[in-house]
Batch of 2 targets.
Target 1
Amino acid sequence: MAGKKVLIVYAHQEPRSLNGSLKKVAVEELSKQGCTVTVSDLYAMDFEPRTTRKDVIGALSNPEFFNYGVEAYEAFKRRCLASDITDEQKKVQEADLVIFQFPLYWFGMPAILKGWMDRVLCQGFAFDIPGFYDAGFLKHGALHFCGFKVLAPQISFAPEIASEEERKAMVASWAQRLKTIWEEEPIDCTPPWYFGQ
Amino acid sequence: MAGKKVLIVYAHQEPRSLNGSLKKVAVEELSKQGCTVTVSDLYAMDFEPRTTRKDVIGALSNPEFFNYGVEAYEAFKRRCLASDITDEQKKVQEADLVIFQFPLYWFGMPAILKGWMDRVLCQGFAFDIPGFYDAGFLKHGALHFCGFKVLAPQISFAPEIASEEERKAMVASWAQRLKTIWEEEPIDCTPPWYFGQ
């Protein structure tokens, strides 16, 4: 939709991969709609995935006992977080739509994107909601918990053993979905009371 | 057991955390048993969690299209993996027992330990086995797949809201378990045929 801001958080080393193609087609389709599209290309940016003391500029709240969650929250309030974090937080805050584009191997995302989540969205909250396979941890845990309205995930299964035709269909299906993405309704997520709200 | 080699892969920023205490008590108990205990303290080592082209020394197998899984495997066969990876692989290979000690927040492990898994054990294989909460992804996915016999996980729930007494009991229960850890039988994991073997 014209005028909307989109952030694509993208984690893959190879631009010519399926992930790269999915990202590229999203930039094209959304730009064509008149959206402003920003891409955080985590590998290209050499994004730091480690959550360390360096994320806090200046003195720690408790230098005797380093608790990342506490220190990051205090630094956020005092506006003392490292600029690579606040730059990303600004992009998230300004965005009308955020797309996470990453390979769904292993337990769900590359370390560098997990690092982005840990550092930008805030690390350290527990959850125990089943449904890993459809990225349940992401939509119910991190994203919903952080205040996002969450759309259904778009998953391209086993691209490495798919044919070229099938991979093209995966990209086309994503481009097609994006044409009406602004009309989609958020999916049901864990209710706020689950988190004690 | 005297003479056994133990590797503890430890990911926490604060030595005085519960994770730090659990690691410390494991080193003490296992050393007392006469084991040789090696600790890979990932934060202290500043372990690189990113899976990049730098992990391969020299020429790539396919410089036109970077596929991390393929390149890492080829480099492994040619003995051209980066030394921070091969150092860890050597520790794993020599160990009779490997303990992963990390906070179980979010979707299971800090990015830096996921990076260790991605780079040392090998990245890129899919799985869809439920049971996230008891670290099923780890025991059935990564570890079992890589040839480990897997013991039951030891989980200390919600230490941040536990009392000092309760946290001490968590540490004591771990120390107690370690006294007879060599007698434990591996748990049932996904059968090999699941992975096409």
Note: The mean pLDDT of chain B is 87.
Target 2
Amino acid sequence: MTDIQRPEARSPRGFQDRRGSDLSAERRIIARVSEVYERWGFEGLETPAFEYVDALGKFLPDTDRPNEGVLALEDDDDQWIALRYDHTAPLARFAAQNWETLPKPYRRYAYGPVWRNEKPGPGRLRQFWQCDADTVGSDRPEADAEILAMGVEGLLATGLTPDQAVIRVSNRKLFDGLFDAGGITDTHQRLTALRAIDKFDRLGIEGVRLLLGEGRLDESGDYTKGANLPSNLIGGVETFLASVSNSEASRSEVLDTIANIGAGLGEAGDAALKELAAIDRALNAMGVAQDAVKFDPTIVRGLEYYTGTVFEAELLLETKDEKGRPIRFGSIGGGGRYDDLVARFTGQTIPATGFSFGVSRLAAALRSAGRSGPQTRGPVVVIVFSDDDMQHYLDAVSELRNAGVAAELYLGRAGMKAQFKYADRRGAPAAVILGGDEIAAGEVTIKDLDAGRAQAAAISNNEEWKAARPGQMKVARSALVSTIKSIIE
Amino acid sequence: MTDIQRPEARSPRGFQDRRGSDLSAERRIIARVSEVYERWGFEGLETPAFEYVDALGKFLPDTDRPNEGVLALEDDDDQWIALRYDHTAPLARFAAQNWETLPKPYRRYAYGPVWRNEKPGPGRLRQFWQCDADTVGSDRPEADAEILAMGVEGLLATGLTPDQAVIRVSNRKLFDGLFDAGGITDTHQRLTALRAIDKFDRLGIEGVRLLLGEGRLDESGDYTKGANLPSNLIGGVETFLASVSNSEASRSEVLDTIANIGAGLGEAGDAALKELAAIDRALNAMGVAQDAVKFDPTIVRGLEYYTGTVFEAELLLETKDEKGRPIRFGSIGGGGRYDDLVARFTGQTIPATGFSFGVSRLAAALRSAGRSGPQTRGPVVVIVFSDDDMQHYLDAVSELRNAGVAAELYLGRAGMKAQFKYADRRGAPAAVILGGDEIAAGEVTIKDLDAGRAQAAAISNNEEWKAARPGQMKVARSALVSTIKSIIE
């Protein structure tokens, strides 16, 4: 391969490697949330990473990006295929394709990476994991309530306590009502306005006002075009947002507040109120606490395909960065109803609702909150002294593995000191020493590396060290497995 | 969304959806093989789906495909990125990028989809799963032997019996010796010749002869250019292949056979023999059976980056298609040494060896052999009669879930008959019936659906049916969970 010029060893911008404890923390989230989904009767589905661009649709907020936010390429037969940007659009394609043979309602869960053609920047990843559950073919409010109750159970399963997360629920039709009253009919203008309102929690009322009007210039100097709503309608939206943003109110209190705003919301608003009231009844019947699922009409979500009810999971857990500054993770999941997404293919309306966990973001949040679970331990390392004694080392390592203990033979060519350093780097609980003396005496020396570190810290000088041999014990060769197990357990 | 024209609901050619039992069978393979890898001391790593094209390198056999077999796209900053075609090339990039801080040798395992820009066709998938383990930074034969022994344990962990799979091992340098003797120095010509030999098991000696010569026209009418070796060298290769292809011989017998061919193999051949002999000693020391890992010099593998030792796992299990015709699955995994792959980046040679399970192919093989494990069961289904009794249904379903029983509330709007059909389609073990009478009497009717099917089969007419109510039992409401558990367990 001498003819190949030397490439730089780096991964593409916006993509990350994950290993060790970080990786197992993410896998733990997926395993625990999946366990909840299965217990609630959802069936696994794995669609391929690619969809035809037309099947995927263009529902992402960042329509200013190349290919409108997706990573796409042209197939041999000149058809464009793109990597999924979520698990919902592929589900709609799958459901439409297999509707006749699927059990109805179709309840499926899915996890895996999704890809977005994000503007590269700190913390902006172009590949991240989501873990979704959806019910396709049910218009029942119990379906939405179930997704919400399950989302709450999923959040707890990841290790959060009830006070550390909340799912906020609203219905986009509340704003449809306002837009109808304001004479806004253009769907694109409505969507732009909804996406402006979606930024309420981040930009506050001033930022939203600009985005509902002509537009907004952000700190980075990027200008976002606004929805150009008439000023009286902008005022109406502001009044609405102000009157409903009370995070302490119970679900029924929020519904009362909205009802008291009254006629301004029109038919669409009344429909939204009815749907939310039905979901509240189902949530109460399921015993879902008021502070676990709140109604918050400022929630709208950025994806285009939602048709009414929308969910957003927010982390209340206070997390800090390396410098101890508080981090706001905001949304760690979301979802809602997308009753028209399957109809894109079939023409037949099939109601659907679902929720998606932002696994990568949730893992990052738990990590910086020191809640990402136990550090992963390395294997027991069997030290190598002489190739002539290889048989003894191999026997020891296979004995340990057959006893279910993760173990390995050191396969490098470095000396004993470097091998102990290696065992440390692996996070090994113990090292197994089979020197010539031990082998001759039918014994084995085992070093408890955790105990060793602890004792070593208390030792002041080299002589003491040599005398103490921190954490080391010599036992009969036949006691290898039992001794190691007593150290690990 | 009325303005969107209707797309067709289909996944791109060469991509497949996976659900239900098929999906869980693949996940079972990954879970069991990963458990083996971890017990052998390998640490998880997940690299992103994309790599820069130059970092990925071009080592695939199908260089006639667009982008030489990879799916690639141009990034915003005009750099080409491509989806990984295996887990080895990204590992080399990762190891080169992090070598200073990694424990050495670095032992990692990885699983996930890989993508190939395959010529679409039956059974030719463009996304499939692999599950790899590699040791980077060890030139020890014990490292290769360990990978092989672990591969054997992995095959057994997937549910195969020892007689149903074998890993064949060889060393490419055997042919380097022949090529040296034949005066072939061009690396591309050597690679073309190796890839011709790689097809020996599929095309037989005649096919290989054509591909070592001018070229071969296959059934589909595609012409593959040959290696254009001189005829005497082709003869030499044929003699070699003929003399060594004896699947009954022990590892040491194969080495003797090769040794007896003698000088023809030259220095490279002698080196290959030494390496294979050392691996044989280590395999014996690890107690790896002769029929679990065989030496077979006809094995070469198609990927360019292998530098010497190569592995190939073959399924011996006889499998049949729907029409009962025997299917040949051939290779269900492979690997080998790639001592130059990290050096591509750093210039510093870092020896490496690894093995990859073809998870998707292995799952397909186990499936058609009826060895893919238990069918996945659906949840217990709680039947819905009247919205007024919703509270009773919800209480029942949450009681079951809290007891760890997968259960769901039927969320459609169809009648009782359709709900039982639904429960059947879900593969539900039982249905829970809470009619008005049951609720009033503090009872619940439970239908054991498996028993029901069995008894129903024995019933001849409708009257009998009504009388028998196959599989149904009425118990006290308080006995719901215990009765369901007795049906499931």
Note: The longest strand of chain A covers residues 106-115.
